[in-house]
């Protein structure tokens, strides 16, 4: 068995507008206990991000990338506890052109927990085909997420990288507020420790715009309490 993509939600939807410092997002329906919930937030500026409404979840921050490319990004993630108390809200202290994208993955077993490592940020400009470096995982069951966030309402295509996928995702999530922006995602699922290859995407329209990139690997693991119960039962 392997980790699987489950669903995605975004504010705004592709080619829409959002220009607020407090963005509420509706999670994909029919989520299950143990799902990995990743929320990537971007805006123009250098604001500080926070979780304004938790929705009953315990959120982890992966830190901000205040890119020199005029893209500010932050990533939050949580292990879904089985119930949304409310739709979560993600806040920034200032800034404009706010995009929030929630991507959900399903574990191989809903008793497993999640961790994150191999976080890498980069900022580029003046090119249309933008790469994100690969990584060798240190855990056997992983999902590596690649994110591109640009400073114009670019369309994106031509995903290149063996094993990388956009299945279930939109080609991009454009925000037409203010000076525009665009975010796009891809993921790589592995069932063993592997060398995840580099991946590229190409700005098809309005190309060569400044772009911030982020790569994160999430891994699932059996918590010690479950291990103890397993070994006690079989020994």
Sum up the structure in keywords.
18 strands; disordered C terminus; five-stranded antiparallel sheet; mainly beta; 5% helix; globular; 235 residues
Task: Give a written overview of the molecule.
The chain is mainly β. It has one domain. β5 and β6 form a beta hairpin. The longest helix has 11 residues.
Could you give the topology of this structure?
Blueprint: E1 4-11, E2 22-24, E3 36-44, E4 49-53, E5 60-66, E6 72-79, E7 89-92, E8 96-106, E9 113-124, E10 129-132, E11 135-136, E12 142-150, E13 156-160, E14 173-175, E15 181-190, E16 195-196, E17 199-203, E18 211-221, H1 224-234
Antiparallel strand pairs: 1-8, 2-7, 3-6, 3-8, 4-7, 5-6, 9-18, 10-17, 11-16, 12-15, 12-18, 13-17, 14-15
Which structural class best describes the helix and strand composition?
A: mainly beta
User: Can you count the helices?
Assistant: 1
Shape: globular
Strand order of the largest sheet: 1-8-3-6-5
Largest sheet: 5 strands, antiparallel
DSSP strand tally: 18
Q: How much of the polypeptide forms β-strand, as a percent range? A: over 45%
The end-to-end span amounts to 25 Å
Radius of gyration: 18 Å
User: What is the average of the pLDDT values?
Assistant: 93
Order of helices and strands: EEEEEEEEEEEEEEEEEEH
Number of folding domains? 1
- Helical content band: under 10%
């Amino acid at each position: 068995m392997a980790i699987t993509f489950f669903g995605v939600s975004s504010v705004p939807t592709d080619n829409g507008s959002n220009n607020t410092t407090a963005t509420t997002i509706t999670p994909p329906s029919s989520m299950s206990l143990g799902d990995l919930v990743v929320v990537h937030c971007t805006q123009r500026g250098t604001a500080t991000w926070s979780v304004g409404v938790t929705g009953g979840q315990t959120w982890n921050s992966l830190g901000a990338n205040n890119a020199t490319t005029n893209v500010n990004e932050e990533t939050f993630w949580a292990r879904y506890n089985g119930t949304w108390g409310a739709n979560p809200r993600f806040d920034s202290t200032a800034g404009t052109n706010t995009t929030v994208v929630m991507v959900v993955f399903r574990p191989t077993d809903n008793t497993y927990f999640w961790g994150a490592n191999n976080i890498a940020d980069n900022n580029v400009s003046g090119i249309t085909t933008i790469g994100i470096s690969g990584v060798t995982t240190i855990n056997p069951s992983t999902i590596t997420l690649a994110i591109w966030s640009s400073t114009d309402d670019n369309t994106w295509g031509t995903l290149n990288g063996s094993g990388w996928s956009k299945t279930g995702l939109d080609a991009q999530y454009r925000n037409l507020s203010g000076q525009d922006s665009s975010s796009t995602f891809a993921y790589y699922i592995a069932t063993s420790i592997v060398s995840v290859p580099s991946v590229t995407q190409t700005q098809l329209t309005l190309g060569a715009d400044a772009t911030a990139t982020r790569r994160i690997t999430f891994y699932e693991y059996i918590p010690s309490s479950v291990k103890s119960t397993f070994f006690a039962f079989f020994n």
